[in-house]
Design brief:
Blueprint lengths: L1 H8 L33 E12 L1 E3 L5 E3 L3 E15 L4 E16 L4 E8 L3 E11 L4 E10 L28 E12 L2 E12 L2 E3 L12 E4 L3 E12 L2 E12 L3 E3 L12 E2 L5 E15 L2 E12 L18 E9 L1
Antiparallel strand pairs: 1-4, 1-19, 2-3, 4-5, 5-6, 5-7, 7-8, 8-9, 9-10, 10-13, 11-12, 12-15, 13-14, 14-17, 15-16, 17-18, 18-19
Length: about 325
């Protein structure tokens, strides 16, 4: 009996329904104080939407080019999940869907597609953390799966046989980033630098018209990426700016055959390397500790010509991207 009485007096760490989980890590109510990992025991669901209407591209030397009568609509409907598996570790998952539409008043073109994009899975590991003021340094490892459709028509019969647009490059990416954040009172500065390695894969849009072969090996150029984002917290509202630099190497194409080391037999696409720079900003509204509302805009400042249109991830068009999302966490 004395043992049962003792057990009855011990505290528990359970939570039922939507009660606060006592095992989870503390999380600040304002964005400027939060580290770059979500914290142990937290689960976050994000729903987002990106909208871009492009009416131009870039020349080979990075000059803005206006289309005549053509418009390209590119939207992304996003589902994201984050979970803090430990005090310094986080798993995350992003699943995009895309609705795209190309219209041309001069030619009477009106073609659209909807489908799943390329999901990304990742693991963040915090190397260093300090609170008050917040200092956070992490390693972010990410894998991209080529799950979206790769076919858009045969092309042999001309443009009229193109009934849709590919949503995937047909190959996988493996990326690694080092990210950091430093708070200075109501201010914070976040930044990252990383490398995206793009493997080759067999894609249905690599067409050899003369041989009537509708699949080939495609290897986009690997990429170096750097980002910088200053932030100012004003009560429950955080204002931030964003700058993104990308430098990518030449892509290569080839047939599906070619021995054990197939990448050595691919042909380099001359002029497919380049760099881009985008800038923008946005706002984060910390409605509650468990609800954030986000809105932002990103403006292309400099880019390269569209070698692999309509694959926006590796060959983006010239247009402002507006984004909004809501994050719910428990």
């Amino acid at each position: 009996m004395w043992l049962l009485s003792l057990l009855a007096t011990l505290p528990t760490a359970d939570a039922a329904g939507f009660q606060i989980k006592t095992m989870r890590a503390p999380l600040s109510a304002v964005e400027v104080e939060r580290p770059l990992v979500i914290g142990k025991g937290w689960l976050e669901l994000g729903l987002g939407y990106d909208h871009k209407e492009a009416d131009g591209a870039w020349t080979a030397d990075g000059q803005a080019l206006q289309w005549s009568g053509a418009r390209w609509l590119y939207t992304t409907e996003r589902l994201s999940v984050r979970y803090g598996i430990s005090r310094s570790g986080e798993l995350y998952w992003d699943v995009p869907f895309h609705y795209v539409r190309l219209t041309n008043d001069d030619l009477g073109t009106d073609t659209s597609s909807f489908g799943i994009g390329e999901p990304r899975f990742g693991w963040k590991l915090e190397l260093f953390n300090r609170a008050i003021p917040t200092t956070s340094l992490i390693v972010d490892l990410q894998y991209k799966m080529p799950t979206g459709t790769e076919a858009a028509g045969t092309y042999v019969g001309g443009p009229n046989t193109v009934v849709g647009f590919p949503m995937s490059t047909g190959q996988a990416d493996l990326a690694g980033f080092v990210r950091g954040k430093q708070q200075f009172g109501p201010f914070a500065l976040a930044g990252s630098v990383g490398y995206v390695h793009r493997f080759s894969g067999v894609s249905q849009f690599v067409v050899e018209v003369s041989e009537y072969q509708f699949s080939g090996r495609f290897k986009p150029g690997s990429e170096i990426r750097a980002e910088l984002s200053p932030m100012l917290q004003l009560g429950p509202v955080a204002l931030h700016g964003d700058a993104v630099f990308r430098q990518w190497f030449s892509a290569s194409l080839g047939t599906t055959a070619g021995g054990f080391f197939v990448d050595e037999n691919l042909d380099v696409v001359e002029g497919s390397d380049g760099w881009s720079f985008d800038a923008g900003g946005g706002v984060v509204v910390n409605a509650t500790r468990g609800v954030d509302i986000l809105a932002s805009a990103m403006v292309p400042i400099r880019g390269e010509d569209l070698y692999f249109f309509p694959l926006e991830g590796i060959s983006p068009t010239r247009g402002v991207t507006f984004s909004t999302s809501v994050e719910l966490r428990y």
